[in-house]
Description:
Strand order of the largest sheet: 1-4-5-2-3
Structural class: alpha+beta
Helix content: over 70%
Radius of gyration: 24 Å
Number of helices: 8
Strand content: 5-15%
Mean pLDDT: 84
Distance between the termini: 45 Å
Order of helices and strands: HHHHEEEHEEHHH
Low-confidence stretches: none
Amino acid sequence: MISPHRLFTLFKYSVYALVTLNFYLFFDEEWAASLLQYPDGVPAGSLIEAYAATIDTAAWLILILMFELETSVLSPAHYTRTVVWSLHLLRVFSYCFIVYAFYGYIVNVMVVSQVDVAAGISNLCDIVSGNWSYAVILDQYELITSENCASFSDANRYYQYRGMQVLVDETGYRDILRLAWVDVINSGVWLLVVLNLEIDVRLQEHGKLDGLVLRISNISKFFIYAVLFLAAVYWGIKGDFLDFWDAFLWLLAFVLIELNVFNWRKESRHELEIAALGDSGQAQPG
């Protein structure tokens, strides 16, 4: 019979594996979008704009590995000078790219907000031979053909993204812009998550994650995770399944890291109680 601990570990690493799979899915999605956004190839300076979600996911994968090692895998005996410096360097590397990706989401808002009224276009089926695409959702475009032109929109006015052969109607434009802003908010709030978790881990390392500090941490996490949950719900309603699924998995992954910290704290308190009992036993006269 499989023990509860082994089942928990299996479930935890299954979640991590699914999050890793999302790295490929985001790359595939953004690669397709970049072919339209940058028909001459993505300039080196625009990589973060074109692949914000891919770069963001890769950095988060490294970061969650660091948290998993520190809160569940490594024991005090493993913390050699080399291991400590390696963890710190990887963490700094990850945070640099996470902040960079946050900037990329902000730039993406500016990119998708730049549209002009497409003069002379009132029916998508009239331009099927013009190599036009339609913005179905944020970062997802479909070539307009005679087979699908009537399925996108029945509006009589369209917007064109600047520098792109891409159209969208007014409703679609508003939805895409809102989704882009949700990306910015979500990315910013995740920075607060890791800041909170970093503080928890450092305090726990010194045995100070207790009392008022612990209560403040838990209250702040409630509001932070609530915002992330609402973002996931919004993606489920207005976005695509991949965004919703990725948000759900990352929430679950960090809840598992929080459980690691909880168990770590529980074990530390148990060790302190055993040590206190041992000391009291030695202090008693024979």
